[in-house]
């Protein structure tokens, strides 16, 4: 059965330089679409991708990635902003690696675009008033 | 075409006053010129909302039965230590005070989830906080220990007394090192990966009152949702900081010490804050009304983000080492566009003070004045101005070793 999954891949510094992702195509016959890729804080790689293929192959591929030290997390819209608590100060915007948090102009209000959010959690501790929440 | 403050207050009482925000004033001065703007506009309101660490609460807790003398003892509110070197039940709680149990940066970067600023927010929100104290007994104050919940309402006096608020200009913080750093200017990405700034720019009180004509001792203002007053120049007041031709300082300059009744305040404009790796603080909303007495005031309040420059400072080097190096100046218009140029690199710029809330404060103050609920005051005495040449002094470093050998 063919499935489509959106996942967040976190590459530790030792792995982020290695060619790994191409094997999803070569060895597991999967089609992927990279939604976001960044080398972030402390040389940690972060990639968000949409993967389509046979379910059995998808499972094998994720096992392979885990063995390489890549941390996997399903992508949900799991970061939310409590608008009653948010003061629109902007402290979260500078730490957001995917530009999901941005300043809307000219209102200068902070907005969260859930589709771009990679749920990395940086904003949660960067927010001075704890307005960002991780929900499962 | 000068006006007096009394004429403006008379217009407020008659409901005929013309009040605009500092943002609206920009267009008015641009279109009509300063002379005409001075004739049509009576008051310009300003606003700012951001973390101001030098803030705190002075509280009188009432007397226990039997009596207890907290002065000279140890006092905490929700575990956060307050200063108790005053009379029996007067205490002061600062925004950056931390519980003894907080790990600080032992696990780096620390989270600093709860400190003095949060206690102050909880009190203003009407929550019960836990007062715990131990002290010594005296003939007139025999009790040595107390543990009780208390609310703001149950206190006698409770007022914010903030030794330094409303900084006239501030640094743009960047990081030239190879690792992320955690500062009071927020998290700064390595290799000039981010630039953080913290001023409302064209809406900010002292950019619109560059020579402190409106802000002096006794000036009534908006403080955290209630009415407050300027009581002194703020700590580190540096009116002698170098200025542009338009009179705007090119770096941190004037500051205000303010006071206001906490029982009037609103948590929309007063929030405890945690800065990862740095500590706790208090976000405060401040709004200064400026009487448009003449053409000069009109021109000054017409200042826009294009006219205001801020210094770029490296918080991984120059700042911690107190070196004077500045990497250049940028306007608040450039900062608010979302990116600036530093050393040939395009760097994303993000604010740390809320412009939407600054705007809301200026609007609220405008409504108060228009509705006749808030009259303006002339300063009882001025705070030191640019002509004083006064600038901030560094701390001496003169250890007593020689005398101890």
* Spans of at least 5 consecutive residues with low confidence of chain B: none
Q: Please provide the ordered H/E string of secondary-structure elements of chain A.
A: EHEEHEEEEHE
* Major sheet of chain B: 9 strands, antiparallel
Oligomeric status: heterodimer
Sequence stretches where pLDDT stays below 50 over 5 or more residues of chain A: none
Structural descriptors:
heterodimer; A: 136 residues; alpha+beta; Alpha-Beta Plaits; 2 domains; four-stranded antiparallel β-sheet; 3 helices; 16% helix; B: 405 residues; nine-stranded antiparallel β-sheet; 7 helices; 24 strands; 18% helix; globular
Give the secondary structure arrangement, pairings included.
The complex is a heterodimer of chains A (136) and B (405).
Chain A: E1 2-11, H1 23-26, E2 31-39, E3 45-54, H2 55-67, E4 71-74, E5 79-81, E6 101-104, E7 109-112, H3 122-126, E8 132-134
Antiparallel strand pairs in A: 1-3, 1-4, 2-3, 5-8, 6-7
Chain B: H1 5-14, E1 19-21, H2 22-40, E2 43-45, E3 48-51, E4 56-60, E5 74-77, E6 80-82, E7 90-94, H3 116-124, E8 129-134, E9 145-150, E10 158-165, E11 172-174, E12 181-183, E13 186-188, E14 195-197, E15 220-223, E16 226-233, E17 256-261, E18 270-275, E19 279-287, E20 289-291, H4 295-301, E21 309-314, E22 329-331, H5 332-337, E23 339-342, E24 345-351, H6 355-370, H7 401-404
Parallel strand pairs in B: 1-2, 11-21, 14-24
Antiparallel strand pairs in B: 2-20, 3-19, 4-7, 4-10, 5-6, 5-8, 8-9, 10-17, 12-13, 15-16, 15-19, 16-17, 18-19, 21-22, 23-24
Helix pairs in contact in B: 2-4
């Amino acid at each position: 059965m063919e499935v489509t999954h959106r996942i967040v891949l976190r590459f530790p510094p030792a792995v982020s330089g290695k060619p790994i992702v191409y094997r999803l195509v070569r060895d597991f016959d999967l089609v992927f679409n990279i939604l976001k890729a960044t080398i972030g804080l402390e040389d940690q790689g972060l990639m968000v991708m949409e993967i389509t293929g046979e379910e059995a192959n998808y499972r094998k591929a994720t096992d392979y990635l885990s063995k390489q030290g890549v941390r996997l997390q399903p992508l949900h819209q799991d970061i939310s902003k409590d608008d009653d608590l948010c003061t629109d100060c902007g402290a979260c915007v500078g730490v957001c690696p995917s530009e999901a948090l941005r300043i809307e102009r000219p209102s200068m209000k902070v907005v969260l675009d859930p589709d771009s959010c990679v749920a990395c959690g940086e904003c949660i501790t960067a927010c001075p008033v704890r307005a960002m929440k991780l929900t499962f | 075409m000068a006006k007096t403050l009394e004429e403006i207050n008379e217009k407020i009482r008659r409901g005929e006053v013309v009040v605009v925000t500092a943002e609206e004033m920009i267009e008015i001065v641009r279109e009509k010129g300063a002379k005409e703007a001075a004739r049509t506009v009576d008051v310009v309101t300003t606003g700012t909302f951001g973390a101001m660490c030098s803030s705190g609460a002075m509280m009188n807790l009432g007397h226990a039965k039997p009596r207890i003398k907290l002065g000279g003892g140890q006092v905490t509110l929700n575990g956060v230590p307050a200063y108790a070197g005053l009379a029996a039940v007067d205490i002061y709680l600062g925004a950056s005070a931390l519980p003894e149990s907080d790990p600080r940066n032992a696990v780096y970067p620390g989270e600093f989830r709860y400190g003095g600023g949060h206690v102050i927010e909880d009190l203003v929100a009407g929550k019960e906080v836990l007062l715990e104290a131990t002290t010594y007994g005296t003939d007139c104050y025999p009790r040595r220990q107390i543990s009780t919940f208390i609310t703001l309402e149950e206190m006698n006096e409770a007022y914010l007394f903030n030794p330094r608020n409303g900084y006239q200009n501030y640094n743009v913080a960047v990081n030239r090192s190879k690792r992320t750093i955690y500062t009071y200017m927020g998290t700064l990405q390595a290799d000039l990966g981010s630039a953080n700034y913290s001023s409302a720019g064209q809406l900010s009180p002292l950019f619109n009152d560059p020579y402190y004509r409106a802000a002096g001792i006794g000036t009534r203002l908006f403080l955290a949702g209630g009415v407050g007053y300027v009581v002194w120049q703020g700590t580190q007041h540096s009116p002698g900081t170098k200025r542009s031709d338009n009179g705007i300082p090119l770096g941190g300059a004037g500051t205000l010490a303010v006071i206001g009744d906490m029982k009037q305040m609103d948590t929309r404009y007063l929030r405890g804050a945690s800065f990862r790796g740095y500590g706790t603080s208090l976000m405060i909303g401040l709004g200064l009304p400026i009487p448009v007495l003449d053409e000069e005031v009109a021109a000054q309040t017409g200042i826009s983000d294009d006219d205001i420059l801020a210094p770029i400072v490296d918080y991984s080097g120059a700042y911690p080492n107190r070196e004077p190096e500045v990497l250049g100046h940028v306007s608040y218009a450039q900062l608010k566009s979302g990116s600036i140029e530093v050393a040939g690199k395009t760097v994303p710029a993000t604010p740390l003070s809320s412009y939407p809330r600054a705007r809301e404060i200026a609007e609220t103050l405008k409504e108060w004045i228009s509705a006749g609920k808030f009259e303006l005051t002339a300063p009882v005495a001025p705070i030191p101005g640019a002509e004083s040449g006064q600038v901030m002094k560094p701390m001496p470093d003169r250890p007593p070793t020689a005398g101890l050998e």
